[in-house]
Write the structure tokens for this entry.
Amino acid sequence: MATRAIPKMDVLECLPSATEIAQRRVVGKDLDFIQNMIERADALTIQAQNATDYIQLSKIIDNFQKLASRAEERSFTLKEFSKDSNPLTEINSSGQLQEKVRLLSEAIEPQITNLKLQFEANLNSQFEKYNAEIDNLSSSINSASSSGDVVALYEPIKNTINEIFENARVLNADASADTLIQRLNDVSQSYQEKADIYADAFKSDALSKINNIEQGISQLLGNVDSLNSVNSVNDHLSSLTEISRLVTSSASELNIYPESANIIININELSIATHDKITNMIDGNKILNKLEPLTNNPEELVRAVKEASFRGEVKVVEEQLMPLLDNTDNLAAKVNDLLIYFQSNGYADISIMSVNKIDKSISRIEVRYKMAESSDPNTLASSVSDLIIKTDERLEIMQSIDPETQYNLLSTSVAQVNDAVNSSDISLFFTNPISITRDVMMNSRGCVDSAFKDFTREFGGFIESVFDPLLLFLSSFEQLMLATPWPVFLLIAGALAWIGSRSYVVTFGSMFAFFAIGFLNMWEPMISTVTMISAATLLCLAIGIPMGVWMSQSNRVQSIITPILDIMQTIPSFVYLIPVVMLLGIGKVPGLIAVCIYAMPPIVRLTNLGIRLVDKEAMEAADAFGATYRQRLFSVQIPLALPNIFAGVNQTIMMALAMVVIASMIGVAGLGLPVLQAVQNQYLSLGVLNGLAIVALAIVFDRVSQAFGTRIQKHRSGDVL
């Protein structure tokens, strides 16, 4: 039932309006882009005129370079509007941009000259500063007398190297930068020597700390069972918090050593044991409070104790109350005694929140512990060496901001903008990809999608009714095969295999394959798959063989149909599933159509090829005997082309089987559906079994069809009867 009528405008009528709308949007965006560039150039000009610091001026020049690069990227737009005017904006032409760029250049150029002395003074002061820092670092390294001193020196060394790294564009203006790197390398070498000296002492201290932490964890783990009051719980939790903080703070010292691997495992085990113990204490107190009113009712007390035991494993219930179920007097007395004991030890004041908080903190320790940067002296020395290498590379590749380089950069940026505006149409044509604008594409696709949806609403019901006989055939055929007893099915399958192959191995192998699939509880999915493959193969042969014959008789028809077959074989199956599902919904018929689209090309191509390869002498002999066109086709060409045709049948069956899994996505039952479910839910065994079943079917169909094709070929050549 249609919900709305087909739109009055078709796709071709929709395109002009889409193009017009898109053009207005694009023009507006491009004009905004030019206006933004002009405003940016004005802002940079003002900044340049007010600049009082050379570094600030260098940043303005960098921004100017970015503006020029952006103009170069949008050169096509600049060229397009170079001679136009737009009354909706303040732009008369992109020549305004050229003028603004010229003014910006004129504002920057004198500032470079004015601030040149400042740059040189700043450069000299930076070299003096860094040389002094390196002298201090060298002195500190020489006076280091412990592993702690070596570790403490890492941060100052790192900070100095990072500062030099950040100021590379200033420092590489002077040849002394190489000397600075050499001095840093000397510092690195001295630091490495000190690290080698104190590495053993650092390791010894670390191993001692590891041992102390493990002893502390072991002691706390041994105290868990003895927790019996709110005070002991609070003391235990305080100790647990303290040792977890110690583990976290010591991560950089310890995580490099294999001996520390058990720390995280043990502290997690301690956390779990503590949580279980305290939870048991809290739960036990709650249960005793519920049992206390029932001490005067023995039957209800026994029932409540059993229920508590069933609901959870609380030690006070399992170990002290459950053994007394047969003696209700002692059970009631035990409940009262335990409740008094729990109350006197403050069980009601124990908070589970504090336990959960510690658990969360400990659960994060492992990640923090492993991610902590090692403070081992040798590791730190290696890190220093890497930082110096990166700094040296940056000094080599970074563009200097010395006055001479800035002058050149300024000229280059101005030329970039002018070239972008004045570049030739020929150059733009070859250097810019020509494509439909995004707005045109979006509007056009919207028209196509809307028209197709309306078409499916209007005619979808009629199209489905056209395929109802095919659906009835598929359902009836499948029901017939399912109703056939399995021994009869195996005999029929064996008989067909024998007729096709005349081979005992193929015959009994086929029967065994079907039996094995059924034995593994995949009989019904296998029947559904065989039904679909059989129907798809028959439909492909009914359409494909006549089409192949038609192609073989006409080169023009072949030139038309061949591209269609190429599309059918190469287009992703998910693409043509969309219109099929929109027209026919999900189920057997759309699945059959999808399988046929994918599997039909081989039979068409090989039928065409087989007929075209028929020996010309045989055709001339047929003509000499006065054979008609029909006689030549059915008595000479098709019989001689049968080996190729049966090769096409074989390939069609194989490609239909390959489509089984994809067809299951649109509601086709069979072996492909469990494979799809296995992929979605990560069921390895289910996917492997059904995949092997599909492989078994493929082997059966392949061997039988190949053997039959071979027999036909031998029969035609006179080798067999």
In short: The chain is about 85% helix and 0% strand. The chain has four domains: 28-116+401-426, 119-208+377-397, 227-371, 467-717.
